[in-house]
Amino acid sequence: MGESMKGLKRTIMCGELSEKNVGQKVTVMGWVQRRRDLGALVFVDLRDRTGIVQIVFGEEINREAYEKAQTVRNEYVLAVTGTVMLREAPNPDLPTGMIEIKGESLRILSESETPPIYIKENLDAAESIRLKYRYLDLRRPDMQKKLMIRHRAAKVVRDFMDENGFLEIETPMLTKSTPEGARDYLVPSRKFPGNFYALPQSPQLFKQLLMLSGFDKYFQIVRCFRDEDLRANRQPEFTQIDIEMSFVDVDDVIELNERLIQRLFKEVLNVDIQIPFMRMPYQEAMDRYGSDKPDIRFGLELVNISDVVENCGFKVFRDAIASGGSVRGINAKGCADFGRKEIDRLGEYVKTYGAKGLAWIALKGGEIKSPIAKFLTEEELNGIIERMEGKTGDLLLIVADELDVVYASLGALRLELGRKLNLIGPDNKELKFLWVTEFPLLEYDKEEGRYVAKHHPFTMPMEEDLELLETDPGRVRAKAYDIVLNGEEIGGGSIRIHDTKLQERMFKALGFTMEKAWERFGFLLEAFKFGPPPHGGLAYGFDRLVMFLTGTENIKDVIAFPKNQNAADPMTSAPSDVDEKQLEELGICIKE
Amino acid sequence: MGESMKGLKRTIMCGELSEKNVGQKVTVMGWVQRRRDLGALVFVDLRDRTGIVQIVFGEEINREAYEKAQTVRNEYVLAVTGTVMLREAPNPDLPTGMIEIKGESLRILSESETPPIYIKENLDAAESIRLKYRYLDLRRPDMQKKLMIRHRAAKVVRDFMDENGFLEIETPMLTKSTPEGARDYLVPSRKFPGNFYALPQSPQLFKQLLMLSGFDKYFQIVRCFRDEDLRANRQPEFTQIDIEMSFVDVDDVIELNERLIQRLFKEVLNVDIQIPFMRMPYQEAMDRYGSDKPDIRFGLELVNISDVVENCGFKVFRDAIASGGSVRGINAKGCADFGRKEIDRLGEYVKTYGAKGLAWIALKGGEIKSPIAKFLTEEELNGIIERMEGKTGDLLLIVADELDVVYASLGALRLELGRKLNLIGPDNKELKFLWVTEFPLLEYDKEEGRYVAKHHPFTMPMEEDLELLETDPGRVRAKAYDIVLNGEEIGGGSIRIHDTKLQERMFKALGFTMEKAWERFGFLLEAFKFGPPPHGGLAYGFDRLVMFLTGTENIKDVIAFPKNQNAADPMTSAPSDVDEKQLEELGICIKE
C-alpha cells in the first residue's frame, strides 16, 4: 500500500522550477518518467502536467530516500522534498534543465505496473490500445496539451460572449424526436412505456424559442448527438458552440463572429487574424472552386469552357453540353511534365467523384500533347488554351459532365493538386477564413421527389427571391452562411423565418401539408403566433475548431473519452447489456 | 406579414435609457407591454430584456407612426425610432420613468395573438399552463432575471476555477450503465442491438480517471441524469458543478471551495460571506440537530436525557432505553402557552417520522403541566428540566424511540418549530454555511442484509479507523464531507481511495466478491494498477445553488425548459411515440 501524504503539501509544480528557485526547499509530486541508477547516485525524472524535473538521490544526501529511490519504477507516484540546485551538466532539451532537486525525503504515494503504452509525446500505438487505456494515453504531454487548449478555447469563447451581452442558457438533453435530419438517439421513458425522448441533434428549436422569450442574445457550449454511421472525424456525441441573436440581419451575425474568431486565435495561439473575412456567394464558390467550402489558400481555380467547346469536334464535350451539362477545367500551372502514369492516376481520382474521365492538354515548350487534340481544330484548341490562360509548362485538366459532377470532381481534383504541389499540407500554417453566403434555400431530393431544406426548414429566404418560392423554388437563395477555414466548414447558420405566413409558404415548398408541419413542429408554429422577433444565429463544431487550434487531424485527439468507429468505448465497454429488470421497467424488449 | 427591419439598427436597449440620452435620436426594438390611447396621443410601453420604456406617438410627431401605433396590441414586436425627451409627468416606479421617446417612425416587425398568460412579474398561473407556454412564461421579467443570475453564476464559477488552475474537461454522455446507485436512463445502441448506453448519473468514474491521467485539477459544469420518481425540486436532468483535485486531503478541498462560494456570492449578489465556514462532524450534527444537514441559523438543539430517565417511573422512556433506544428532547423556549391542539398537531407531525408519540412538559409560571408528570417523581421531573435547561415559559418536547427515529423526528420537529417561531422563513436572508465531516463510510442496509457505501464505494476511510474496516465496519468514518447552506445540502464529496489493496478491502466490506467488483468497476480497478495519485473532490447541485442565489424555492424557476412531475415536457410533448422503423433499427420492441 502506498504511503500517505499526511502532513505534506506540494509547494510547486515540476515544470515551474527554474534558476529562480535555487536554494529553496520545495516539495513536488508526480509520476516517475524514468529512473537512472549511477551507483552512488539515483536520478529520477518526475513529471506532472506542467513538465519534468530531475531529482537526484544519494547516500550522502539522504540515505533513506536514496534507498527508496532505488526501488521506484516508471509511473510510480512520488512526493519529494528537497533543495533546488544548479545542475553540473545542464540539459538544454528540458525547460527545467538548468536545475535539479536534491532528494532529501521521498514518499512513494502509489506504485505502478508496467504500463501497456509508453508515456511519451507522439506515440505511435494502435488506436484500439490507446482507447482501451485512454487514461494512460491522456498522460502523454501532447494529449494533455490538446485538452488544455480545448479548455482555454472554451473559456475564451465564454469570456467573449459574456462581454458581448450573451447569456449561456442550458437547453434540455431529454427532448422530442423530430424525424427531419439525422438519426436520433432515443431514450425510453419509464413513466410512459412505449414513448421515447430523443437526445438533441442541436438545440435549434430551443434557441429559437429563447429568442421568442426575449432573451435577445443566447449562446451555449453544448453536447449534441447524431446516431449516424461514423466517418473519419465524426463522433456520435460532439460539442457545438451554439449562438442566436434577436433583431439582427446577416451582417450583424457575421460581424460578431469575426470578432469572436479573432479573439479566439489571438488568446489561444497568439495569432493575429485579419478581419473582416472575405465573403463569397455560394454560386461563385462553386464556379471558382467546385466546392461550397473552398480552400482559398491557393489558386488552381475552375474555368468554364462550355461556350468555347459547345460545337467542337470532340463528341464527349459536345454531348455533355447538349444534354444540359458543362465542360470545365483546371490549369495545373507548371505541371506539363507530369508523366502519363500520374495523369492516369488523376483520371482515376476524378472517377471516384462520378466523372467519366479526365481530358488533358499538356503545353510543353511549343509542343502541345493531348489525346483529344486530334478531335479539335487548331482554333478550338487555341480557344481552350486561351480561356484557361495556358502557358508553356502548364497542364490543362478538363471534365465534361452534369454540372454537379463537374463541380465535385474538379473541386476534389483541385485539392489533390494542391496537396501534390505542396500548396497546402501540414507545414502550411496559413489560416484563410471565408464566409460562403447566399446558399440555395432548397435542393431537390430525387429520392424523395421533393425539395428539401438545404440548411433547415426555418431558414429565411433572401427578400429579393421571395416571389420565386412558389414559381421556381430551386432558385431561391437563403440568408444562410457558412464559415470556412482552409477548406473546412467550421460553422454555419442563418437568419430564421419569424413570420408564420412565410413559414407556411416554406412548408408548402417542402411538400409538407400543414397537418404534417404541425405534427412535427407544432410547438414552434404555435409559439410563433405570439410576437416572434427577427432573429438568426450560427453554430460551430467546437471539436473541429479545437482540431485547428491544436493542429491535429484526428477528432479523437481533442475529446477526452471518444468513441471508436463503432460508436463504442473500449475502455468502459459501453454500450453493454443491462439487467432484464431495467428493460421490464421501461416496457421494452429486445428483438431476437 | 410583419415589416422587415432592413436598413434599421437598434441603437440602445429599452432599459438603458435615462436622462443622459435626452435629445438623442435612438432606435429601440421590443415587445408591447401595453398601449394606451389618449385621443391625440398613443402611449406604448415597449419591453426588452433590460426593461421598459414609454414611447409617445402623436399626429403632430409623425402621422404615419401615430396611425400605426393605434393598431398595435400587447406583445406585438416593434422597432421605433425617435428622440428621447424628459417626461412631463415622470413615473418614479419605472427605472426609465424620467424620460420617454417621441415616436417618429414605427415598424411592426411581428404581430401577436392574445397570449394565454400575462407577461408580468410574479404571475400566479397554473404550472401546467406555464410549462406548456414556457416561451411566454420566460418572457416575464422575474423569470428572465433568474436565468441571467444562472448565467452569471456559471460564469463566476468558471472564472474562479480557471484562475485556480482547473481545466474544464468534457466527459461522455453516452456511457456504461453501473447498476449501483439510482436508476439509469438507457440509450439503445444501433450498432450492437440489445446493448445500451447509460446517461451519466455523475462523471464520478471519469473524473477519477482524469486524475489518474495527471490532469491534476479538473472541473466541469455538466448535465447529469437520474430516472427516479420525482419529488419536489428534483428533475430527471440536472446540472452539477463537478470538481476533482490531485495530491490533496480534506482541508485542501474545503479551503478551495470556501473561496469559490465566497467569490460566487460576492460577484452574483454582492454579499460578503465569512470564511472559513464552521465544520461539524456527522455525529455531532446528529446529536445536536438530529440531521446531517442542520440549519444552524437557530438553536432549539436536541438534548439527550436518556441517563436521567433510564430508571424513571414512565414506562415508555424506560422501555425505549432498555431496548437500546434513546430519549431526547427539545426545549421550545417560550412556548409554554402552546394550546393543547397545537401540541397535539406537533405530536402528529413527529409520528410521520416514525415516532410513537411526543411527551411534553410545559413550565407555566411556577406550575408544571405535563401528561407524564404523574409517572415521574419530583426528582426525575426536575432532573429532566435541569438537563434541558427549562425555565418558566418553556415547553419541553420529548421523544423516546430507536435512535434513528429520535433523530429523524426531533430533527424535523426542530425545523417545524423554527418555521413556526419565524426563526427561519422567506424573510430570513441570513446565509449559514456549514461543513459536515467524518460521515460514516458504510451504513447497514437491512433489506439487502449488507453494508452499503454511504457516499460511494471509492470513498477513503479515515486513517484512524482503517483497522475497523474488517472488525466493526459500521464505525469506520470516511473522509467525506457535505457543504450545507441553511439546512440544505448544496454539495458533497470525499477523498477517494487510490490504493488497489484498500479498494479491495472496501469491496469486501460491501459484501462484493472481487468477481462482482471487477464486473462492475473493472476498468477503474484496472486503471488503478498504474500509479493513481491521491485525489478527492466535490460536486454541487448547480440548480440548487442557483435557487439560493435567486431566492426561489422552485427548481423549475431556474431551468429554462424543465420537466413536469411525470418527467414530461408539456411544451414539446416529450417523451412521445416514434416511428416503428426507428425501433427496428435499434432491435427493440415495445411490450404490450
TrEMBL record, chains A, B:
<dbReference type="Pfam" id="PF01336">
    <property type="entry name" value="tRNA_anti-codon"/>
</dbReference>
<keyword id="KW-0067">ATP-binding</keyword>
<dbReference type="InterPro" id="IPR006195">
    <property type="entry name" value="aa-tRNA-synth_II"/>
</dbReference>
<comment type="subunit">
    <text>Homodimer.</text>
</comment>
<feature type="region of interest" description="Aspartate">
    <location>
        <begin position="204"/>
        <end position="207"/>
    </location>
</feature>
<feature type="binding site">
    <location>
        <begin position="541"/>
        <end position="544"/>
    </location>
    <ligand>
        <name>ATP</name>
    </ligand>
</feature>
<dbReference type="InterPro" id="IPR045864">
    <property type="entry name" value="aa-tRNA-synth_II/BPL/LPL"/>
</dbReference>
<dbReference type="InterPro" id="IPR047089">
    <property type="entry name" value="Asp-tRNA-ligase_1_N"/>
</dbReference>
<dbReference type="GO" id="GO:0140096">
    <property type="term" value="F:catalytic activity, acting on a protein"/>
</dbReference>
<dbReference type="InterPro" id="IPR004524">
    <property type="entry name" value="Asp-tRNA-ligase_1"/>
</dbReference>
<feature type="binding site">
    <location>
        <position position="235"/>
    </location>
    <ligand>
        <name>ATP</name>
    </ligand>
</feature>
<keyword id="KW-0648">Protein biosynthesis</keyword>
<dbReference type="InterPro" id="IPR004365">
    <property type="entry name" value="NA-bd_OB_tRNA"/>
</dbReference>
<feature type="domain" description="Aminoacyl-transfer RNA synthetases class-II family profile">
    <location>
        <begin position="147"/>
        <end position="562"/>
    </location>
</feature>
<dbReference type="GO" id="GO:0004815">
    <property type="term" value="F:aspartate-tRNA ligase activity"/>
</dbReference>
<dbReference type="InterPro" id="IPR004364">
    <property type="entry name" value="Aa-tRNA-synt_II"/>
</dbReference>
<dbReference type="GO" id="GO:0005524">
    <property type="term" value="F:ATP binding"/>
</dbReference>
<dbReference type="Pfam" id="PF02938">
    <property type="entry name" value="GAD"/>
</dbReference>
<keyword id="KW-0030">Aminoacyl-tRNA synthetase</keyword>
<dbReference type="GO" id="GO:0005737">
    <property type="term" value="C:cytoplasm"/>
</dbReference>
<dbReference type="GO" id="GO:0016740">
    <property type="term" value="F:transferase activity"/>
</dbReference>
<dbReference type="Pfam" id="PF00152">
    <property type="entry name" value="tRNA-synt_2"/>
</dbReference>
<dbReference type="InterPro" id="IPR029351">
    <property type="entry name" value="GAD_dom"/>
</dbReference>
<keyword id="KW-0436">Ligase</keyword>
<dbReference type="GO" id="GO:0003676">
    <property type="term" value="F:nucleic acid binding"/>
</dbReference>
<keyword id="KW-0963">Cytoplasm</keyword>
<feature type="binding site">
    <location>
        <position position="180"/>
    </location>
    <ligand>
        <name>L-aspartate</name>
    </ligand>
</feature>
<feature type="binding site">
    <location>
        <position position="226"/>
    </location>
    <ligand>
        <name>L-aspartate</name>
    </ligand>
</feature>
<feature type="binding site">
    <location>
        <position position="489"/>
    </location>
    <ligand>
        <name>ATP</name>
    </ligand>
</feature>
<dbReference type="InterPro" id="IPR012340">
    <property type="entry name" value="NA-bd_OB-fold"/>
</dbReference>
<comment type="function">
    <text>Catalyzes the attachment of L-aspartate to tRNA(Asp) in a two-step reaction: L-aspartate is first activated by ATP to form Asp-AMP and then transferred to the acceptor end of tRNA(Asp).</text>
</comment>
<dbReference type="InterPro" id="IPR002312">
    <property type="entry name" value="Asp/Asn-tRNA-synth_IIb"/>
</dbReference>
<comment type="similarity">
    <text>Belongs to the class-II aminoacyl-tRNA synthetase family. Type 1 subfamily.</text>
</comment>
<dbReference type="InterPro" id="IPR004115">
    <property type="entry name" value="GAD-like_sf"/>
</dbReference>
<feature type="binding site">
    <location>
        <begin position="226"/>
        <end position="228"/>
    </location>
    <ligand>
        <name>ATP</name>
    </ligand>
</feature>
<dbReference type="InterPro" id="IPR047090">
    <property type="entry name" value="AspRS_core"/>
</dbReference>
<dbReference type="GO" id="GO:0006422">
    <property type="term" value="P:aspartyl-tRNA aminoacylation"/>
</dbReference>
<feature type="binding site">
    <location>
        <position position="455"/>
    </location>
    <ligand>
        <name>L-aspartate</name>
    </ligand>
</feature>
<feature type="binding site">
    <location>
        <position position="496"/>
    </location>
    <ligand>
        <name>L-aspartate</name>
    </ligand>
</feature>
<keyword id="KW-0547">Nucleotide-binding</keyword>
<protein>
    <recommendedName>
        <fullName>Aspartate--tRNA ligase</fullName>
        <ecNumber>6.1.1.12</ecNumber>
    </recommendedName>
</protein>
